[in-house]
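The data are quoted verbatim for reference:
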Amino acid sequence: MQKTEKIYGIRAVIEAINSDKAIDKVYLQKGSRGDLYKELEILTRKKGINTVYVPVEKLNRSTKGNHQGVIAHISPISFFELEELVERVIATKEQPLFLLLDQISDVRNFGAIIRTAECTGVDGIIIPKKGAAPVTSDTIKTSAGAAFKVPIARVNHIKDAIFYLQASGIKVVAATEKTEKSIYEVSFKKPCSLVMGSEGLGISPSTLKAVDEKAKLPMMGEIGSLNVSVACGVFLYEVLRQRSLS
């Protein structure tokens, strides 16, 4: 199984970014200085790369080499541009189905969602560049390899993706408890996309305001919510059920 690759050294990381490598996250040493270090900081901000400032001890534990105050994780998969993915799908599918993940942070949940997405015919997954779980070897293992089969696009903001999908004629439905409408009252037969929220906070309020419809799962027990990967599976199979009856 292909693992997440680590690269270290300021010049090496700058070159990787400029070569359009799929960088998941960059760890920068707190308090570092220098022109080259500053150049790297500017480049990560320009490219919208998820950047974390950490103590030197964390970097030392991650590599035995001379990291020069920076370590980058390169994803084992390649990511799509949103426009490229959406245009390609709508040109070939009458009923496109996209999945937007708003700050899903657990790599195993992410992997389980990808696996279910592949099994239910999802045409593409859209995640934010910052705050989303990275695609690691654990993600790929939990997805049973589906991470290599389902196209994944990264965007600066999930709301931008929602607006683009809506402009492309694709309805956006949010899975949320903050509605009275049941999943079984929503039609998924036309081109649509589903938004799932983070494990702890759910879908952000600003994102909820942008969607076309909201839907919730009926809950009979005392526990108020399902694991996000399980809830996502229920929603996706309802889409599949409705479309199989068309």
Notes: Residues 85 and 125 are 9 Å apart (CA to CA). The first strand starts at residue 5 and ends at 8. The two ends are 39 Å apart (CA to CA). The chain has two domains: 5-74, 82-244.
